[in-house]
Amino acid sequence: MMNIFKRKKKQKQANTNPSPGAQVSMEDKPASDDIKEEFFTNTKMKFSFSLKFVSTIIDENILQKDVLPYLLEGEFSGLNDVKSILPIADVEVSTDPSIIEQKMFNGYVLLRSTQESDKYVFIAAQKEVSRSISAPEIEFSVIGPKEAFIETLDQNLNLIRKRLPIKELIIKDFTLGTLSKTKVALLYIDGIANEENVNTVKQRLQDIDFDEISDSSFIEQLMADNHNSPFPQFLDTERPDRAAGVLTQGKLIMLVDGSPHALIGPTTLVEFFGSFEDYYLNWIIATVFRLLRIFSVVFSILVTPLYVAALTYHYHLIPRDLMATLISSRQGVPFPPILEAVVLEGTIELLREAGARLPTKIGQTIGIVGGIVIGTASVEAGFTSNVLLILVALAALASFTTPVYKIGNTIRLLRFPFLFFAELWGLLGIVFCFCILMTHLLRLTSLGRPFLEPLYPPRVIDLKDTIVRLGFNKQSLRPQYLRTEKTRRFPKKDGKIKKDIDE
């Protein structure tokens, strides 16, 4: 088989000393070394042509097996016949030279002929470089599918199409990034998703003017309703089953080529504390787990501020037996409670960051050994009390119960404002900080929809799948705040348990 990469390339004559003021063409500009152009002749048809391509993004096997033999030995009279002789579906004949650069850098081979200089043929020969589908790492579940999105957009779309094989599933393609030319796909179910939400997302995607989009997190930040909020306003997931599930509810999905995470919108705050594994468990067990996560988050944020407030201002509210324990634990500690708490919280954050940035095996060792050694040494040296060390460790453990990583980062950040307000005004400072937080959350929206729904505005009917998760027979209606075109998921009578014939 002939190897086109071993053929001698014909060199073009170029004027190395252009006259002053002469206009330099694209051919005269410095070209990248991976841009190749090879010249061939079909002796049977006396047809001369050239193939131009970017060698780093095309598959050489496609050229060797599916393109070159047919062009050198096939019978055709012109470029219009190329599409019929090649065993490749994606072959396009065009007369528009402005799309040459776009097509070539998307993995197409440019076919040109000296006999028909006004026509161009683009042959798809993209090289697919991707990893295999693996189990979710962040949203891992014991029960349920073990598939996760990867960095290839087409494969991710396949995972969703496999779960929703319906014509109503609409996919809209966008190209974002003036330099990266990143492919972005918007997914929704026609007839269910609210048309206003669809138009809002389309408009925001079209309005993005950024040079490089390398991950879905870029889209999330550029499309957020409030760019200065620490709360994520889109729910990201790596699970195809969760993406398919929220599409049936009437939500929208955004997939970015090169990113293994999908963006879900609009979303609410309570959805960040629900795992999709809850739907694979009995509704009573799933409800208990959700309540446990919410309690853990509140405990993680408030336990150290309450410790600081109680020891600084409200020690008279502490029971006498507990106060004796606290006094004995703080004997010899030279720092006030606020400095003691900030040092310990900062140490926990250092261990988290070090464990996340180091290789997996080393990071686990640093987290375990570092926590034990530093904690024990700080108590024995008298820098902190053992009671606060226990509380900080429990708070760190409670923060790990959130199933979505990004909301976990927000919770880690919220502790410090509460700590400082507790030092300033005690319990009153904690209440004041809580009022500031609630004011921010009440004003926050996701694609224009309330972020605190169904808590505010209060919608009792939507509580069936938020803080608690009722059985599937109780979830016949889709969430009200989505304003879906089709509100009912199934007839209500079908969700009831019917008696057997012999009962």
UniProtKB/TrEMBL annotation:
KW Transmembrane helix (keyword) present: yes
Membrane topology: Multi-pass membrane protein
Pfam families xref list: GerA
Record keywords: Membrane, Transmembrane, Transmembrane helix
InterPro entries: Spore_Ger, UPF0353/GerABKA_families
Membrane spanning residue stretches: 291-313, 387-405, 417-442
Ranges annotated as biased composition (Polar residues): 13-22
The organism's place on the tree of life at top rank: Bacteria
Subcellular location: Cell membrane; Membrane
Biased composition, class Basic residues, residue ranges: 1-12
Region (Disordered): 1-30
PANTHER family: LEUCINE ZIPPER PROTEIN 4 (PTHR22550:SF5), SPORE GERMINATION PROTEIN (PTHR22550)
Assigned protein family: Belongs to the GerABKA family.
Full protein name: Spore germination protein
Gene source species: Heyndrickxia acidicola
